[in-house]
Specification:
Layout (H helix, E strand, L loop, with lengths): L19 H8 L1 H9 L4 E6 L2 E6 L2 H10 L4 E3 L1 H5 L1 H4 L8 H11 L5 H21 L5 E3 H18 L4 H21 L4 H4 L5 H27 L6 H7 L11 H32 L1 H15 L13 H13 L6 E5 L3 E3 L2 E3 L4 E4 L1 H4 L16 H4 L2 H6 L16 H18 E5 L7 E3 L3 E3 L4 E6 L2
Parallel strand pairs: 2-8
Antiparallel strand pairs: 1-2, 3-5, 4-12, 5-8, 6-7, 9-12, 10-11
The structure holds protoporphyrin IX containing FE.
Protoporphyrin IX containing FE (HEM) binds next to α13 and α19.
């Protein structure tokens, strides 16, 4: 018997696996989406009972993120993330989200980022001071630790470094366990005393106690340290002058902590990897850094002169976008490219796939920072052929922070070190919440000075 409405479904791949598309997706998500993308700009698949659609066309992506954004809310992964993040910026919806976004925005203004940039360089220098010539390091871990300390410092200030480390450890175990939350039925599984659920609860408990203690201390002292936490505590609603409750500050702080460190860490890890595979680009990068900085540390003002650094970051993020997929749930019926999409459907878009599409990029698999001399990041972004930070009202609030951090960390570390891939290192992708290197990234570091 024909399924009702099936004749209106966009093309899909056949699957003979028990568990259907859901298993194919879990086994190799980027490969699965790539196969779908070969069938058209709008394709369909099923994740268990859920009807899902995949869009790989710039105009349709704009339609989803910008033009008709009001007809969609965050996808399942972020709905589930509420267990950890509460009603933070990443997970909240509607009027509440808009209000929070307005209150938090000043923490990401240019002057604030210029201020954070000093901590970024300082901490990158500390990392550099700990490195030894010719040692082999897990660069993925080094980058994770560094970006975590940066978010920790800009959020909580230097004198709570110990606490920031405790937060960091709990964060790391939370991120690993996060995948568990995405399993079907995890809503129920979480209520059972399984090891996963217990570890999740205990990590959440650690994070909560540390963050609430910091919030209480700061409220008591009334001090304005000029960091993100002070901004959250002092942020006032423009309309009614209200401030955030401790619970809201907790949700936002944790959200920014989580959203702000793993993404930039993975961006940098893949950047070291592509540079190690492209000696010409690496040499050009070193030449620029040596010329602009002449051995000194970079500052916020240097960023406009470090154009090749910027192009390396842009190109690394094209090939390895940390937020590799973005999901939405339709809250109303809609239509994409002539195909009706019912309320309740899941819509997926993927920077990873669109950034590697031959129709929009010449030799898309090749790492070529020079392509950004011809086409600015802004223009590619406006065309939605390049959207590592999403778009519309839910666009990444930390975009300026991330560019600044990426360029300054690259300039600080590549000024002193050259990184070579360990010959035994296997390379594969692990598309979890963010795109990670599946087997880590062991690299040998060599002094350049
Ligand atoms: C290379 C680094 C980063 C990438 C690729 C990235 C990517 C993204 C993307 C694609 C979204 C939109 C998700 C969606 O529409 O469903 C997003 C949202 C968000 N990001 Fe980032 N991000 C990065 C760094 C950061 C940093 C450094 C921070 C904070 C310090 C941050 C905080 C956030 C927050 C709070 C949201 C939710 C915004 C909202 O919904 O209003 N991100 N990010």
């Amino acid at each position: 018997m024909a399924i009702k409405g099936a004749e209106k479904l966009p093309p899909s791949v056949r699957t003979d696996l028990i568990g259907g598309h859901f298993r194919s997706f879990r086994k190799d998500a980027t490969g699965f989406l790539e196969r779908l993308s070969k069938l058209g700009d709008v394709t369909s698949f099923r994740l268990g009972p859920q009807q899902a659609y995949f869009l790989n066309d710039p105009e349709l992506i704009r339609d989803l993120l910008v033009v008709n954004a009001h007809k969609f809310k965050k996808g399942r992964a972020l709905q589930r993330a509420k267990t950890l993040l509460g009603e933070g910026l990443l997970t909240s919806e509607g009027e509440f989200h808009l209000r929070q976004r307005r209150m938090i925005q000043p923490a990401f203004h240019r002057a604030q980022i210029a201020d954070y940039s000093r901590s970024m360089v300082e901490l990158a220098e500390e990392t550099s001071d700990n490195w030894r010539d010719r040692e082999t390091l897990d660069i993925d871990r080094e980058m994770m630790h560094l970006t975590l300390r940066i978010v920790g410092k800009t959020l909580f200030s230097a004198n709570v470094e110990d606490d920031a480390d405790a937060v960091g450890k709990a964060m790391t175990s939370m991120t690993t366990l996060f995948n568990f939350l995405l399993l079907p039925f995890s809503e129920w599984l979480q209520k059972l005393p399984l090891p996963h659920s217990k570890r999740f609860k205990s990590a959440r408990g650690t994070l909560d106690s540390v963050i609430y203690a910091i919030i209480n201390d700061r409220r008591r002292s009334g001090e304005n340290k000029g960091d993100l936490l002070s901004m959250l505590l002092n942020a006032q609603d423009e309309d009614d002058g209200s401030v955030m409750t401790d619970e809201q500050v907790r949700d936002e702080a944790l959200t920014l902590f989580l959203a702000g460190h793993e993404t930039t860490a993975n961006l940098l890890t893949f950047t070291w990897y592509v540079l190690s595979q492209n000696p010409d680009a690496e040499a050009k990068l070193h030449e620029e850094i040596d010329r602009v900085l002449n051995g000194r540390s970079p500052t916020f003002e240097d960023i406009s002169k470090l154009t090749y650094c910027e192009h390396v970051i842009a190109e690394s993020m094209r090939l390895y976008p940390p937020a590799w997929a973005i999901g939405r749930l339709a809250t109303e019926d809609h239509e994409f490219g002539g195909f009706p999409v019912e309320k309740g459907s899941l819509i997926l878009i993927s920077p990873y796939i669109t950034h590697r599409d031959k129709r929009f990029w010449s030799e898309p698999e090749v790492f070529r920072p020079e392509r950004w001399e011809m086409q600015s990041v802004k223009v590619a972004g406006q065309r939605y052929i390049y959207f590592p930070f999403g778009g519309g009202i839910r666009r990444c609030i930390g975009e300026g922070f991330a560019w600044t951090e990426g360029i300054l960390l690259l300039a600080t570390l590549a000024g002193k070190w050259k990184l070579e891939l360990d010959p035994g290192q296997k390379i594969a992708l692990q598309p979890m919440i963010t795109l990670r290197p599946k087997y880590g990234m062991r690299m040998k570091i060599r002094s350049r000075i």
